[in-house]
Amino acid sequence: MSKQLSEPSWRSHLFWIIVGLFGLVIILEFSTPPEYVMGYLYISPILIANSQLGRRSTLQLTLVAVILTLLNIWIPKQGEVQISMIVNRLVTILALIVTSFLSDRDRQTQQILVQQQAKLQSQEKIMNVREDFAYTLTHDLRTPLLGAIETLQAFDREQFGTIHTKQKTVVATMIRSHQNSLRLVETLLDVYRNETEGLQLQLEPINLAILAEDVATSLLRLSTSRSVYLNLHYGESEFRKFLWVNGDAFQLRRVFTNLLTNAINHSPRGAKVEVVLEIQSSYQVVQVLDVGSGIKIDEKPYLFDRFYQGQSDRLATGSGLGLYLTRQIIEAHGGTIWAENRIPHGAIFGFRLPTLPYSSHDIT
Questions:
Q1: Where does 215-335 show beta strands of DSSP type E?
Q2: 3 state SS of 205
Q3: Which of 275, 155, 144 is nearest to 217 (CA)?
Q4: Which of 21, 97, 232, 302: CA 20 to 30 A from 293?
Q5: What is the pLDDT of residues 207-226, one digit of tens each?
Q6: What is the C-alpha to C-alpha distance for residues 93 and 99, in angstroms, rounded to an integer?
Q7: Beta-sheet pairing, 336-341 with 347-354
């Protein structure tokens, strides 16, 4: 606390206001019969001192007020001292002490709140600087990655001369590595862009069944390399259904890609990943089921948090952004997403989106 708050200055206007109030109360207290208790009026200068001058000044004024209140029993002398006079002044003294104590506690609470607010503002500024730095860095990384991929693909097409089979294998590996890095950078950019600008959706009627089939087809190479079988079915029926929603095809494709890739990567060789599409009264429901390691109970609440990486095999790898971005997309569509363990083993990642009302699209 500063010296100006803890110690009153003789030249301060506030000091003389407090002195004036004290003097006025003293005049009223000692000019009236002892039966009239005016000590309650000391509360006003005590409160002013506490809010402006600090704890030390408040305690001093409270002590002075208590002494003056007690002295008024005998000064001025006006006959025999009554028990009621003593009781009234003791109650007054108690009120003064409680007021001083509570006002001091309130002042301390206010100071703590101000300090916490300043701390939060400082932390918020630091977070903004960090996020701006990360956004700028990832944005600047995107261009050289694209250039490197294009160059490597040119080598793979033998535009700069013939390369051997072993060299082709190395170039292909480098291309995949750079593409994975590019996807990570683009995901990070999207996450920061969505948080600052909001997710911009290009809404149109989308059939989730067709979208799921397209994404599953595009991931055949990945599933084949890991010997994982992809299977789509429609709840109790194996016949194709129309699951129309009002959504952004590009963003919803990312949702399917993230969930299916996650399931494939965490399934044992020879396993089956299932995509179940169901129609409910007002929602279209999609569930991705695998037979991998499942989800630890203590990690479940944090699965869709940004940068969260748990200790289980399912969460220990990756950037911790895929599921977070998936949640952003689903919630931007007015839907919900969840994850749960599959019995006897494995995991289920599902989401539901509001059904598009009946239109001509349902019969196409």
A1: 229-233, 244-247, 272-279, 283-290
A2: strand
A3: 275
A4: 232
A5: 999 999 999 999 998 899 88
A6: 10
A7: antiparallel
